[in-house]
Design goal:
alpha/beta, 43% helix, single chain, Rossmann fold, 359 residues, 3 domains, elongated
């Protein structure tokens, strides 16, 4: 291992990979040399791993690199004997010191010339890097699963409307104007109606921490789209958090540090308040906890005393509900999985338009 010089392996490997179709340039070559100077790659195995990290950008390139590296190891013995014979002619050099003939000094320059030829040939190759696009690889492993997109949330929230005409009389009512003109027999003046605004009241109850940690991204998007990217009035959107089961107190913040009594929250609700609960209901871990079921049943009973527009959004797929607490809770309140159809159906429930197939 002491005779192994990683700098002698970098350039041949660089040329062989470029000939095999690798998109490498001067930057990659210099990066490899700097890594070796930093004592990365003191053995053949370590050097191969270092070059694989710097020069391979896909699994297919790593497989091709291993084959090319094996071929370089087969060709490497031809280079090693050139260094070993330098130790054998040492006695001849002692004789050369005594006799000092001019002919003995000529062989060393011949050997140096043969060593300099590949360097001059290889130095010009990294400059001619082809400007070709990098091959596309299958990145399906790196893709994440998104049960529902933020854009779709913003779109579906617009269906939650409860219009009320309490604005100024500045909206032209064409139908009434035509009807009045027909009754009078002549056109006198246009008829205006009051400007409408969305008076829907939304109460969002979000399960936080624990098994809901992987879904915090989507619950955050659900809150932000309801507040800022919908037709709902921001003062008409109330957001509260709980852990596993809403108890006597829930929380104003997502860190569960500002408690507020549940009765105080429900006091601001009426029979037209839309209530949407977001929780896995125990389906994430597959538990069936009787205490959780009883506490959730008591909580839902309190909600139904104030409003019947209640829906439950579960981030876990429906097939994961079987055998867990969610399977029983789904019989107490309309529960839907968090996807495009699930959120749309939940909005239909909380806006007072139950689905026909539920009956």
């Amino acid at each position: 291992m002491s005779s192994f010089n990683p700098q002698d392996w970098i350039t041949p490997a660089f040329i062989r990979l470029r000939q095999s179709g690798f998109q490498l340039g001067v930057g990659e070559l210099l990066a490899a040399r700097q890594a070796v100077e930093g004592k990365f790659g003191e053995s053949r195995e370590e050097l191969a791993e270092t070059l694989k990290i710097l020069w391979c950008h896909s699994l297919s390139q790593q497989i091709r690199f291993d084959d090319i590296w094996k071929s370089l190891q087969v060709d490497s013995p031809s280079k090693q004997p050139e260094k070993k014979p330098q130790k054998e002619p040492q006695p001849e050099t002692h004789q050369a010191v005594v006799e000092e003939p001019p002919e003995i000094s000529s062989p060393p320059p011949q050997e140096t010339v043969t060593e300099l030829k590949p360097e001059t040939e290889l130095s010009s190759l990294p400059i001619r890097a082809p400007f070709t696009p990098v091959e596309t690889e299958d990145t399906s492993v790196l893709q994440a699963y998104y049960p529902i997109s933020r854009r779709l949330m913003s779109y579906i929230w617009r269906y939650l409307r409860r219009p009320i005409g309490d604005g100024p009389l500045n909206v032209l009512d064409i139908n009434v104007t035509i009807e009045q003109t027909t009754q009078q027999g002549f056109y006198l003046a246009p008829v205006y109606r009051r400007q409408e605004r969305n008076n829907a009241h939304l109460l969002l109850l979000l399960d936080q921490n624990g098994s809901m940690n992987p879904f915090h991204r989507f619950t955050r998007d659900l809150v932000e789209t309801a507040l800022y990217e919908s037709d709902l009035q921001p003062e008409k959107v109330d957001v509260f958090y709980f852990h596993n089961v809403p108890a006597a107190s829930i929380y104003k913040d997502l860190y569960l540090t500002e408690p507020i009594t549940l009765l105080t929250v429900l006091a601001a609700c009426d029979h037209q308040t839309s209530i949407l609960i977001v929780s896995d209901a125990g389906a994430a871990r597959g538990y069936r906890d009787l205490k959780r079921i009883r506490a959730t049943t008591s909580f839902l009973f309190k909600l139904k005393q104030y409003s019947s527009l209640i829906a439950w959004l579960n981030p876990m797929p429906e097939e994961r509900w079987i055998g867990s607490s969610a399977e029983i809770i789904a019989n107490l309140v309309p529960m839907f999985q968090m996807d495009n159809n699930g959120l749309s159906n939940a909005i239909d429930i909380v806006r007072g338009q139950p689905l026909k197939h539920l009956h």
